[in-house]
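Re: duplicated header lines in exported structure tokens

Our pipeline writes sequence and tokens for each protein into one text file. With two proteins the header for the second block appears twice in some exports. Here is an export where it did not happen, for reference. First protein block:
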Amino acid sequence: MSDDQTITIDGKTYKLADLSEQARAQLANIRFCDERIQQLRNELAVSDTARMGYSRALKRELDKVKA
């Protein structure tokens, strides 16, 4: 970590080098959570797309039964 890295929280900028070990640990936890949330959003998008495909396939099969 370089001494000039900063982070802005609630409109206030902090130098990372000035933060306590606990504050840096909490930042790491937040970053981990943000990455996990993004991963879950991506998985949801993939699952939603797959579900739509399955629904279309089911409708095609059900149309065969009606005919």
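Second protein block, exported in the same file:
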Amino acid sequence: MSESVETRGDDRIELAVRDANNDGKPDLWVVDTDGDGQADLFQFDTDGDGEVDITIVDRTQDGMPDEVIDGDGGLPPR
């Protein structure tokens, strides 16, 4: 786990979970944290180990990252 990141809310509603490299493990998570149906948290497994390596937060939901951090940002996938 890495440093905690602030999101729009405390929920974790996974809008999309994908296996982009067809290894049978998820490596992309698109998450809504405030229940408005729009993504504001994006997480990526870049090395194929099934763990989040990069977390991007878009608190303003304008398509521009407000914060990019290494690790899961204290918000591991369920």
